[in-house]
Specification:
Number of domains: 2
Largest sheet: 6 strands, antiparallel
Distance between the termini: 48 Å
Oligomer: single chain
Helix content: under 10%
Order of helices and strands: EEEEEEEEEEEEEEE
Strand content: over 45%
Number of helices: 0
Shape: rod-shaped
Structural class: mainly beta
Radius of gyration: 26 Å
């Protein structure tokens, strides 16, 4: 059975003259993998373009006839979380430094981040491009987000920052989880030495 393109198959239903069968699936029609069927549910969900059923008919039954087959696919799932517009701010901000998330990312999932800043939490800069960063690893955001603008001593500070997290599941079953993220910044104006500060959002 050629489905025409790749699908994440989660369930099958068919009408047969015998009750026993197994199945194989393939992405290219050449390399086949035997799949496990629990009731009429694929376990786990499989990514396949080609499906074939093999009779497990008892001795004396010459064949299995599939009259009709239906397949259900798991659709990709996406969730987006945006921090509150006044949740991450510091009136003494001078420059933002790093963004460090903590998350779990099983197979078939992904997590990306975008940022934007504001001077008044009403008018915002455009969202940055999506960024990927390993869990527990700091992402340098000094070039990604606007912290201040203007000449030294008369700067306008972008004291507010929002982080947008996009969590995706390619198979619609596996689930990524974001625990928290920490934004590092400093408050000291030259010639004073920067003093590291941070704010953590989440658990």
């Amino acid at each position: 059975m050629d489905l025409g393109s790749l699908y994440n198959i989660s369930k099958t239903q068919n009408t047969t003259l015998t009750t026993g069968f197994s199945y194989y699936y393939s992405t290219n029609g050449t390399d086949w993998t035997w799949g496990i069927l629990i009731g009429q549910t694929f376990d786990p969900t499989v990514s396949a373009r080609y499906i074939k059923f093999v009779s497990l008919a008892p001795q004396g039954v010459p064949y299995m006839e599939v009259k009709e087959a239906q397949l259900w696919q798991k659709t990709p799932a996406t969730g987006i979380h945006t921090s509150g517009d006044t949740q991450i701010t510091d009136n003494s901000l001078y420059q933002r430094q790093t963004f460090t998330p903590t998350y779990t990312k099983p197979a078939n999932t992904n997590i990306t981040f975008k940022f934007r800043t504001s001077t008044d939490h009403i008018t915002w800069t455009s969202w940055t491009a999506s960024q990927t960063v390993g869990s527990g690893s700091p992402l340098d955001i000094t070039s990604l987000v606007t912290s201040k603008t203007g000449d030294p001593g008369s700067e306008t500070f972008y004291k507010y920052i929002q982080a947008e997290t996009t969590l995706t599941s390619a198979d619609g079953t596996s689930t990524p989880t974001l625990s928290d993220y920490t934004i590092g910044y400093h408050t000291n104006v030259k010639p004073n030495a920067p003093t590291a500060q941070s704010v953590t959002i989440g658990s």
